[in-house]
Amino acid sequence: MWFKRKSVLGKVLLLLVMLLVVMGGLTCLGCVRGLQPIGWSGTVVSGDTLFVGSREGRLVAVDTADDSWQWSEPIQTAGSASILGCSACAAGQTGVAIYGTPAVSEDLGLAYIAGYNGKVYAFSSDSLQKDWIYPVDDSLSPIVGGAVAASGKLYFGCSDKKLYALDAENGYFEWKFETGDKIWSTPAVADGTVYFGSFDKKLYALDADTGEEKWDEPFETEGAIVSTPLVYNDTVYFGSFDRHVYAVDAADGSLKWRSEVEGGNWFWASPVVYDGVIYAACLDGKVYILDAEDGHEVADALDGGSPISSSPVLVDSSLVFASQEGVIYAVDTDSNKLKALADLEIDVYSPLGVNDGIIYIHTQDLTLHRVDVNTGARLMDISLESSE
Predict the structure, then answer these.
(1) CA-based angle 137:194:239, to the nearest 5?
(2) Nearest to 366 by CA among 36, 34, 4, 16
(3) CATH number at residue 71
(4) Are 111 and 53 in contact (CB under 8 A)?
(5) Lowest-confidence range among 140-154, 211-225, 372-386?
């Protein structure tokens, strides 16, 4: 069938990226597919505006009402090789890869993106004029995960092993917390606590105001943690590179359950919950369906046909996810039946976005694809390539 199409090249490239991660040698992430960095930014919607980070190193704002869009000034850097850590990337390259999904503060009227060049940028969400940069005169290590705006602060993890908190209005440093290895996990903030994972195989819980640890000790697994944790009913759910899904008590970090089922590969995407059921997508190409209370499988895993690194979304009572090979699936959460909605015919790595029943998929060809979940119809693509 068309939705079982195989992409040998895509699988080889994904394997290469994963091997580099394991070896700790991901200093050339932007060069895996060529000279240009590949941004895997997802989308976020605020009001009638959708924000996404472009492979050109721009923040892009799309008006969901009339499909008009605008771009920020590009994030540029001189001497790309010294920042990306790869001499092969140096020639003629100025754009900065944006891997994390943008964050928005509606109260402050600001949108934020974090660059692989080790800087965080704040833009006016209306005009896309640059408001502030952190740090101003220096750069941190590469930032892969996205930032989160909450309670007047902006939180993000970094490859320098630290989680940072900034004043969301002016970008002033508030506090930082150091872990044992690089952080690719986009943090989750709930009830005054910041939850995030690290390559040191641990899940952390910090006081959102002070950065102090809230648990006696972080919760440790047997593999790296890169997905954004899910906080639901006083429980934190997350997948690990040890091929298991975990549920820990949000208050004290104690284990509630570890999934008996073991994935055939790493859990990279963030889990989703609906009506007491956890849906956990895995790089083995399957979505595991687990009871939120005790972790047992409530239905057979769903097979997407190729690895799933893109985080799924909920549209009403349907779970929507994308396989790496670009097939978009919808799952009826009542019956857990799977159907294919569309085939984009291009690899998908970015988290899915959703607004008013429309799924948004950002792919590395500078395109924002759109699929109507109710009808399965593909809407007109939006090019994210600037006219400059």
Answers:
(1) 110
(2) 36
(3) 2.130.10.10
(4) no
(5) 372-386
Give residue 273's region: left, alpha or beta (phi > 0; psi -120 to 50): beta
Is residue 360, in this structure, part of any structural domain at all?
A: no
Tokens of 42: 């997802």
Check pLDDT > 90 for residue 335: yes
Provide the number of structural domains found in the chain. 1
Indicate the pLDDT class of residue 90, thresholds 50, 70 and 90.
Answer: very low
Enumerate the H helices of 56-104 as residue ranges. Answer: 80-84
Residue 74 confidence class, pLDDT cut points 50, 70, 90: confident
Does the structure show a pLDDT above 90 at 114?
Answer: yes
Q: CB within 8 A of 262, min separation 6: which ones? A: 243, 244
Q: In what order do the strands lie in the sheet with 297-303?
A: 272-274, 277-281, 286-291, 297-303
The answer to whether residue 34 is domain-embedded is: yes
Does 324 reside within a domain?
no
Mean pLDDT of 266-275: 96
- The whole domain housing 170 covers 2-307
